[in-house]
Amino acid sequence: xxxxxxxxIEEIAVGAAVLGSGGGGDPYLGKLMAxxxxxxxxxxxxxxxEELQDDDMVIPLSMIGAPTVVVEKIPSGRESxxxxxxxxxxxxxxxxxxxxxxxGGVNSLIPIxxxxxxxxxxxxxxxxxxxxxxxxxxxxHLAGIRPYPVSLVDEKGNRMLFETEDGLWLEALMRSATVxxxxxxxxxxxxxxxxxxxxxxxxxxxxQARQIGRVLLHARRLSRDPVEQLLEVxxxxxxxxxxxxxxxxxxxxGFVKGTARFAGTGEWQGRQWCLHFxxxxxxxxxxxxxxxxxxxxxxxxxTETGMPFTxxxxxxxxxxxxxxxxxxxxxxxxxxxxxxxxxxxGYDLDYVPVEQRLEGGRP
Amino acid sequence: MTYRIxxxxxxxxxxxxxxxxxxxxxxxxxxxxTPDVETGICEALHRVIKDSGVPPEHIGYAMLGxxxxxxxxxxxxxxxxxGIIRIGLPATTAVPPMTAWPADLKxxxxxxxxxxxxxxEYDGRMIAPLDEEAVRAACQKMMEKVDAVAITSVxxxxxxxxxERAAAIVAEEMGADVPVSLSHEIGSIGLLERENATIVNAxxxxxxxTVAEGFRRALEREGIRxxxxxxxxxxxxxxxxxxxxxxxxxxxxxxxxxxxxxxHLSGCTDGVVxxxxxxTTDVGVLVRGYPxxxxxxxxxGGIRTHFRMPDLLSVGIGGGTLVRxxxxxxxxxxxxxxxxxxxxxxxxxxxxxTLTDTAVALGVMKGExxxxxxxxxCEQVYRLxxxxxxxxxxxxxxxxxxxxxxxxxxxxxxxxxxxxGASEVIRPDHFxxxxxxxxxxxxxxxxxxxxYSLADQSRDQALAEAEETARADAVQAGADPSRLQxxxxxxxxxxxxxxxxVRIRVKVAGPFKGCASPF
Lengths: 363, 519
Prior knowledge:
The complex is a heterodimer of chains A (363) and B (519).
Chain A: E1 2-4, H1 6-19, H2 27-41, E2 44-47, E3 57-65, H3 67-70, H4 79-91, E4 97-100, H5 110-118, E5 122-123, E6 125-126, H6 139-142, E7 150-153, E8 159-162, H7 167-180, E9 184-189, E10 192-193, H8 194-200, E11 202-203, H9 205-222, H10 226-234, E12 237-252, E13 255-264, E14 272-277, E15 281-286, E16 289-293, E17 297-302, E18 319-325, H11 334-340, H12 354-357
Parallel strand pairs in A: 2-5, 3-4
Antiparallel strand pairs in A: 1-2, 3-9, 3-10, 6-11, 7-8, 7-9, 12-13, 12-18, 13-14, 14-15, 15-16, 17-18
Helix pairs in contact in A: 1-2, 1-9, 2-5, 9-10
Chain B: E1 3-9, E2 13-19, E3 25-32, H1 38-52, E4 59-65, H2 68-75, E5 82-89, H3 103-108, E6 112-117, H4 132-142, E7 148-153, H5 161-174, E8 180-182, H6 191-203, H7 205-221, E9 227-231, E10 237-239, H8 240-245, H9 253-266, E11 271-276, E12 281-287, E13 290-291, E14 298-300, E15 303-305, E16 312-315, E17 321-326, E18 329-336, H10 341-344, H11 355-361, H12 375-396, E19 403-408, E20 422-426, H13 434-441, E21 444-453, H14 459-476, E22 485-493, E23 501-510
Helix pairs in contact in B: 1-7, 4-5, 9-13, 11-12
Protein name (chain B): Hydantoinase/oxoprolinase family protein
InterPro entries (chain B): ATPase_NBD (IPR043129), Hydant_A_N (IPR008040), Hydantoinase_A (IPR002821), Oxoprolinase-like (IPR045079)
Pfam families (chain B): Hydant_A_N (PF05378), Hydantoinase_A (PF01968)
C-alpha cells in the first residue's frame, strides 16, 4: 500500500503517456484534475489487488471520447462522482475501491478524482496494460465478464445507464451516445469483485507507470540517455532510431488511420521503416517485414528527452527512438488476439511476440 | 532610395542595422542592452543613423525585435492586472483558470476571474447559450480592478461568436478603451493552453504600448518618420498597432530573427544556425529559410501554452559565461556577466574570467588587452566549450551526415573554423548583427489555426476559407494583399469524431503594403 501524492501523480502522468502507445489522450489534463482533487481531499491510497477482499466491489472509472475534445471541453468535475454513484445505486452497494480500466493516457489518473472525493483506495492494476480505443478491449472482456451496468455522464448533467448484452454492444451504444453528448463523457463501471480483479486485471500497472515516469523525469535532470534507461525498466526492445520523412492520415468511421515513414539515423541509417497507426501505434515494418505489432506496445520517443509522441503529434522532421514493449500474456491468447490483434485493426498480419521477431538480433 | 532599420534587443547587446531597398547592409552598430531597454534602443538608433550618413527622411521602415515582453513575464514586472472570463459552463469547472501557474506570477496579475455559461461543442452546437447577465456581472466586479480582459470560450476555434459577444458586452459595461484579448485570435485547440496564452497576452498590453511609444519617440528624436513594425516569433513582422493587440507574438522573436538573418546573410536556406550571445548559445534549424518550429507545448515563464515557437536548443555558453576552477576541474557558467562583459571581462580590464577572455588569451579573437591566464587551463576550457557546442549541434540535426552550419551572434567569434558534424562552417559577413538583419528583412505574416467541419463543405472549400482568414490576418498586420504567398499548410483530422472534423493551419507571408522593393 502506498500513498499517491502530487509527486506520484506527476510521475504517473509521464509513464501513462508512454504506456499509451501513441494514444489514450494527453495525461496532462488528468494530472491537473487529480492534483486538484488531492489538494482538496488529501492523498489517495493505492493498494495492491491482493489487498482486496474477494467480495469487495471495485468500480473502474474512465473518460471516453475524442482526445481533441477532452483538452478543449474540460469536465465539470462532477461527472466522476455522479457516474460512480449511479452504478452503486444500481448495485445497491457501496464500492470499496476504484481502478483505472486503461493505464495508457489520460484514463490512468481520472479514478484518482473519485478516490480522493470518497476517501476510497485506487487499485494498482488496470484492464489493458496500455491504451486501446474500444470499450470491449479489456482483460475482463477476455474473461467473459458481462460488462454491465455502465454509466455515462456528461458535463451538462445528462446521465445514462447501459445494460448491454456484451462489450461490442456497449462500445457501439456508448460511442454514439458520447458523440451526441458532444464528443466526450465520463463512464463508471462495470463493477467487478475483488476476486475478479485478482484473477483478471493486469496488476501493478500504476507502479509501472510511476517507474517509467520517474526514469524519464530523472534522466532529463541527469542528462543520461533516457531511452536506454526506459528499455531497462520496461524490458522493452529498441526497434530503431530515425527521422519522420512522411506522414499520411485519413479518417474512416470517426477514426484516424495513418502511416508514418521513417528514415533511419545513426547506426540505422540507410534503412526505412513504416509505422502504421490508428488511435495508437499498431504495426512497425522494416521494408515490408513486420517487426512489431499490436497488442505489443509500440512507443515513439523523443531522442533527446525520451518523452513520448502521440499519433497526432507525428510530423515531418521529428527524430525519434521507436521501441516495443511486450504486452500482458492475456492479450497473446486466441481471444486476446481476436480482440486486439493486427487483423482486428485491418492489417493482414499474424501476431508474433516482439521478442520472437527480434530474436537473433536487431531487425 | 528608401532604407529600413532593423533593431534587435538581446540579453547582452542591442544591435541595429540599416538596410537598403535590396536588403543589403549599409551600416551596423552594437551597443550594450540597458536595464531599461529603451535607452539602449535609442543609443543604437542614434548611432546607426549617424554612422550611415543617410538622411533620416530616407528611412521608410523601422523593425524592432525586442525582449520586453519576455522580460516582463520572466521578471514578473510591469504586468497588467487581468480580468479573466471563461465561457463554457457547465463544462470546464474541474480545472479553473490559472491552475498550475507559478504563484508569484499569478499574484502579479491580481486576476479577477469569472466563469460563465456558454461555449460550443466541437460541431458548433451550443453547450449553453451565453449567459450575458453573468458577463455583465463579471464586468461590474472587474471595474477599476483590471487593466485588460482575457476572454476564452470553449471551442472558440470552431465558433468565435460567444467570445465576440462577450467582448461587446465588456466594451458596453467597462468602456471601449479597455483592451480585450480573445482566445480564438491567440491560439488553437486546447482550452487551458489557449487561455493561458490569452491571459499572458492581456497582461502584456501595457508593456507593448510602452515599447511602441518609446520606439516612436526614439525615432522622432532622430527625425525619422518611418512605419513601425514588430518582429513576431515565427520570423514575420506585424504592424505596431497589431503588436499592441497581440504582444505575446513577440515572445522569442530574437532567436527567430537570428536564424532568419543567418539565412539571408549566408545564402544558406537549409542547415543549422548557431547563435552565440553573451549568456547562451541557441542552436536552431533552418528549413527553407525559416526556423523549424517546436512540436511540444511551450512554457513561457513557467506557464504551459501551445504557442508556436522556434525549435531551439539553448546551452549556457556565451561570451560572458563565467569560467571557474573548482577542485582542479573547470566549470563553465551557467552564470554570465551578460551585458557587463565590456566592464567586467579580463580582456576589457575587469576581474571576471569569461569565455571571451579565454578565447582572447588563446589568440582566437582580439580583446582590448591580453588576459593573464594559464595557457593549458585555457585550452582545457576551450575544448570543453567546443565539445558542448558540438553536442548541441548533433542533437539538433535531422540527419546523421554533416550539415552546413552558419555561425552568428557576437559571441560566435569565439568558435573555431571547424566543428564536428558540420560539412562547412559559414561565418557570413555581419554575423554579429544577424539578429538585427533578421528583424529588418522580415515580411508580414498571418496565420490561422482552426477546426473545420467537412460535413457540409468540401476539403477544398475549408482550405480556401482558412487561407482567406490567414490572408485577412496578414493584411490586418500590414501586408500588401496582392503579394501574399502561402508559406505553410497543415491539416490534421480529429480522431473519434464523426463528420470528418479537421484542424487546418495556414501561414502566409508577404511584403508590407506600400513597400516599393520586391521584399
